[in-house]
Amino acid sequence: MFSEFEKQALYKVIYTRRDVRTFLTKKIPENIVMNILNAAHHGPSVGFMQPWSFILVSSDELKEQLAWAADKERRALAIHYEGEKQDQFLSLKIEGLKQASLTICVTCDPSRGGSHVLGRNSIPETDILSTACAIQNMWLAACVEGVAMGWVSY
């Protein structure tokens, strides 16, 4: 059982968490990064396949390349929208990839765990769903640690 205080703390974190697009350049202490990654690794995964990998990127050159790739994909996807919706989609900021002191690139390996993973045969997307759960844990831990996160996908 959890105390009322513990329950309220959990809900406060859930309701406080935000997706941000502007970041400070201040380096994040290593113990905080490790806490965030540890929380992510404790995310539930179907068949305990843990299909995720977390790549820590602090190199300005690599962050520039990631931002270029994200912008290229954003522009390619913009054709699916028209008028104001397209303008709104194109206005999404990706500068955070370059601005933040640390970018965590999350990957998903659908082959992790082998050819037969309990649950994956009936729902093939369980690898992606499991990775999303790990990201949610990471996001909640970052919020508790006072670290902002933003989601950029491509």
Write a structural description.
- With 154 residues, the chain is mainly alpha-helical.
- It has helices at 4-16, 30-41, 60-77, 83-90, 96-99, 126-144; strands at residues 52-57, 103-108.
- The longest helix is centred in the C-terminal third of the chain and has 19 residues, at 126-144.
- The radius of gyration is 17 Å and the shape is globular.
- It starts with a helix and ends in a 10-residue tail after the last helix.
Quick description:
By secondary structure, the protein is mainly alpha-helical. The protein has helices at residues 4-16, 30-41, 60-77, 83-90, 96-99, 126-144, and strands spanning 52-57, 103-108. It has 6 helices and 2 strands.
Strand runs, count: 2
How much beta, percentage-wise?
A: 5-15%
Helix fraction bin: 40-55%
* Terminus-to-terminus distance: 40 Å
Order of helices and strands: HHEHHHEH
* Cα Rg: 17 Å
| Biggest pleated sheet | 2 strands, antiparallel
* Averaged pLDDT: 90
Biggest sheet, spatial arrangement of strands: 1-2
Shape: globular
Which structural category fits the helices and strands? mainly alpha
| Low-pLDDT residue spans | none
The number of helical runs is 6
